[in-house]
Amino acid sequence: MLRSMYSGISGMKGFQTKLDVIGNNISNVNTIGYKKSTINFQDLLSQNLSSGGANPMQIGLGSSMASINVNHNAGSSMSTGVGTDLSIMGDGFFVVQDPEAAAGEGQYLTRAGNFTVTAEGNLVTAQGYNVLGSNEQAINVSGYDSFSINRLGEVIGKQADGTETTIAEIGVSTPENPSGLRKFGGSLYEMTGVASANGLNIQTATEKNTEIGSGMLEMSNVDLTEEFTEMIIAQRGFQANSRTITTSDELLQEVVNLKR
Predict the structure, then answer these.
(1) Which residues contact 68 (CB under 8 A, 6 or more apart)?
(2) At a CB cut-off of 8 Å and minimum separation 6, what does 147 contact?
(3) Which of 158, 236, 249, 260 has an alpha carbon within 20 to 30 A of 221's alpha carbon?
(4) pTM of the entire structure?
């Protein structure tokens, strides 16, 4: 009976964490470039009751979390008509850098392409981080009357006389294991050794075999129907495990009453 109680407790803790993951996904259903998380469980160690006979006799001791993974499937695209709103049409991430960080440091990955241009002409994120080109330098469009970004990720500046010049190329990084990236907050990811053995490895969209969509944003890949279904399963699982605890308690109460 005590084993069943502890198994019930481990199950309740697991489903509580699952509800935490689901709640975070739902809260970010409209977050640009957000990637939903999923949780997987595994059983705990089993207690051997007997090693005799043809097969071992074992009783499980509950469940535990195996992993919480990030699903990096692409979300739907939303047209905005704003030239500085970008989306990656395929695999990869934009590379941004904290302007206060030293050269080569403070670099992050993101799929949120809602960029703007500062008064100094720098292409930046909503948090003010500089968007890096394929040369790992901040992209600056000052000195031009206007600019545009084509599907190859080329930032093309245009002078008043119609002269066009390629200012920079949007940098793209494609880690071998995107699930190994560490969430930093603000729709940013930190590179880790688990995600890529070669670091950021910033290249052009063409070299990464992808394209850049200008005037559109990638929305969250959260499916509310799926999340609500998982929420129901988590709720019922939590209730079932709590019922295991109350039933074990009733049995223990009956044992105590035998003495009266």
Answers:
(1) 17, 21, 37, 38, 39, 40
(2) 83, 141, 155, 156, 157, 158, 167
(3) 236
(4) 0.86
Cα–Cα distances (Å) from 143 to 75, 128, 147, 155, in that order, read 35, 20, 10, 13
At 241, which amino acid appears? N
Residue type present at position 102: A
